[in-house]
Amino acid sequence: MKLPLALRRPAAVIGLLLLALQIVMIVFAPVISPYSPVEADALASLQPPSAAHWFGTDITGMDVFSRVVYATRINLLISVVSVAVAFAVGVPLGLLIGFYRGPASSLAMRLFDFIQAFPIFVLGMALVAVMGQEIWNVAIVLAILFIPIFARLIRAEVLSLRERPFVAAARCSGATDRHIMFRHLLPNAMMPAMVQVSISIGMAILLTAGLSFIGAGVRMPTPEWGLMVSTGAQQMILGVWWVSLFPGLAIVVAVLCFALLGDVMRDALDPTRARKPARAGRRPQTTGETA
Fold first, then answer.
1. Cβ-count burial of 68 within 10 angstroms (0-12 exposed, 13-18 middle, 19+ buried)?
2. Residue 205 burial (CB count, 10 A)
3. What's 100's DSSP letter?
4. CA–CA separation, 61 vs 187, rounded Å?
5. How far apart are the C-alpha atoms of 233 and 151, rounded to whole Å?
6. What is the number of structural domains in the chain?
7. Given CB 3.0 to 4.6 Å as the disulfide criterion, which of 150, 224, 246, 267 pairs with 55?
8. What is the CATH number of the domain that holds 109?
């Protein structure tokens, strides 16, 4: 059985391998990690990478490798949950405000403008400060930031589709607004939102790490990549590079994984990209062509 053309690209192979690596780290974290991710050992403070501690230890003596592995659970949990909530809320909301144009639609768009006008980290810090520095609160904050993105994407697609002939034909056949929206418009408007899911997960990983880096995300001793980078940043000037380097590389790998998968998903869902281009330099033969 042949794989789809999009899955045979090098980007797809790399993205799927990186995703598989993260899934293995999530599922088998207790087996992979040689130490507890939250158990401090003052006698092992700031030890460089060695056979005993593959990624070294931080200032509290916690094993960096174990914390990087367990942090995969935290970062991906926050990112996937926040994007899933934003998708579940933003898609139907964008469908409604795109189909029903009026004061309510305009009010929703102005609310989105208000949310997106704030710098992301400033708004994130304010919401986390009000709601508390807990894992689920960070996920809710990120969901609030991502809802306008999905709603705008769906609304833009619905606005371009609602005047198409197939919608007029559905109306003439007696279809209700609900039937038109969910059976005709939504399936044809979903492609940009589906692609945005993968991209948004990568953005959520960066935002989660950024909020924790500035002290507005999860708290110690929870293993989280941004928090680990923040903890090690103070010792980098002293030559202690391993505390920040390895969680930073984990962020790069995770974001790169979902960026590649988003590109592959776009190619897989777009039928025009799935067609093989015609060979250059060959004229198509036409009927009646003479030598």
1. buried
2. 25
3. S
4. 52
5. 37
6. 1
7. 246
8. 1.10.3720.10
